[in-house]
């Protein structure tokens, strides 16, 4: 007996349920873009290296090109389309807009989804690879430019808008960050 290679699944995206049949090999990225017309999430490398396809799954960032749609059932998925509050931009979106945290904008949805998680992770006291004192009792490290660069390092920007991206994340996190614009971010 031949095994079925497709199933009907229900995805919970931005607070709405979507039921659709998918081939079991369909990535979450392709389900979002090709099946549900949620094209804000971008495809860059399609192999987990550029971060353009970053979404939030249960509040944690994930590259949707490496996630099978069938494995995302019963998870809370947030894409860039679900970040704003109606017409009001999220503070992270507003900071990217105000500080020109983009040029062509292709990487921007992924950058913003990552930044949302970075701010949460930092506030929760998660250390990064550049955190000097990782003892739990040390608490959240200062959110320096180096911390932001490291925490956002999974999101590439081919336009090189890194200086403004760091500034935008710092603004959204209300961190007092000095960015060396001569050296680049
Ligand atoms: S498209 Fe997913 S990481 Fe590049
Ligand atoms: S703004 Fe163009 S790739 Fe980042």
TrEMBL record:
Q: Which InterPro entries match?
A: 2Fe-2S-bd, 2Fe-2S-bd_dom_sf, 2Fe-2S_ferredoxin-like_sf, 2Fe-2S_ferredoxin-type, 2Fe2S_fd_BS, Aldehyde_Oxdr_Iron-Sulfur, Beta-grasp_dom_sf
UniProt keyword annotations, A-Z: Iron, Metal-binding, Oxidoreductase
What positions belong to coiled-coil segments?
none
Gene3D superfamilies linked? 3.10.20.30, [2Fe-2S]-binding domain
Q: Which Pfam families match?
A: Fer2, Fer2_2
Residues in domain 2Fe-2S ferredoxin-type? 7-83
Full protein name = 2Fe-2S iron-sulfur cluster-binding protein
